[in-house]
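Protein in question kept in full:
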Amino acid sequence: MIELGIDEIADATAGRVLGDAGARVTGPVVIDSRLVVPGALFVALRGEHVDGHDFVATAVAAGAAAVLVAHEVDAPAAVVVDDVQAALGALAREVLARLRAAGPLEVVGITGSVGKTTTKDLVGQLLAAEAPTVVPRGSFNNEIGLPLTVLEADASTRYLVLEMGASGIGHVTYLTGIAAPDVAVVLVVGSAHLGEFGGVEAIAQAKAELVAGVRAGGTAILNGDDLRVVAMAAAAHGPVVTFGTVTGVDVRAQDVRIDRAGRATFTLVAGEMTAEVALRLVGEHHVTNALAAATVALRLGLAPEVVAERLSAARAVSPHRMQVTERPDGVTIIDDSYNANPDSMRAALRALAVVAGRDRRSIAVLGEMLELGEDSRERHDEVGRLAVRLNVRLTVVVGDGAWAIREGAMMEGSWGDEVIHVADVDAARAVLADEVRAGDVVLVKASHGTGLWRLGDELAATEVDA
């Protein structure tokens, strides 16, 4: 973050200063006292299980220059505000305004039901080779993670890439109120958080908030393969650029091929210019993410051949997202366990089928897809049926919430021991210890809250006796 005096922080957050009025923040802004370094600003957020105010003393002892709090605390320098979370957003808004006033800075905002994190990772890799770029860690895409990412920027930052998530109407509007993007990307309208939104049209409305929140004169980049996303052009008040695989889009993937390892190769077409791309990422669905990232980079002035070269070199950065491990014992682990919804579940299962091919045994370890509301049973049932159609040799269904996956598989014609339901991660681990053998391809996929990602970590790090 840029250096700020405590009085400037108080002005930005409508707070009042307690203690040393001359204190200056020269380090990062953090919400975890374990991350405090000398000069940092510690933000004492109240969470569901932990209150940051309980760790103010720890933060001060570690060298925090000041703390942002909701009530008076024992600290040499503090800014007291009515709402710490809102103050964090206000501080980020002020810092971004100062950075934009001081020099060239392009803000890229990315949203969509699936693919946000992979796309921001790809955009980051394309732009970081050009100039200093700030990209969120993991999925810092909410009302806390986004301002923290903004506050990582400093005077040297040329590109600020932001992932914008939503689990309700108005969430993206709040985020664009902190950081209005110069370039806004909408990937896909799917069924993530369906239970919270109440329907796909409401999800589309929430994603369209990013287009409406673009900075004056900014560009909306829309997925031409998704009609709900295409319709968001009506909300744009600046240029609209489309990408996809259909004819008529501005940036297109032509002649898409998938190799035996599940990686896509295609011709990137932008106007009269073409370039060949060979992705290292596993899964045909990454073509959409790659096209979105390419369109951002092209819009920001990179040449198509440079974009294609960097896309072809790009790798999976964030863990548990189609992370492929080739173990020494001949087992391939596809860990896509960070999160799950019906769209990403289908994409992961198809990738599993491609990687396994005809010669290797495919195993899918599937947990519950959370936040689907009243459609949950039907959506899980559909996943089970797809697993059978894709000829997944063994499906291990984990947890009571995922039970309908087994039901769907059985109704689609699965029989014998092709589908197994287990109560929890420990039981799934025991099944795999008995079942997995050299040559198998194992997919691990579930919503993050199920904890199945821990099994993904274990499988990727463990050898199994053949």
Observations:
- The first helix runs from residue 6 to 13.
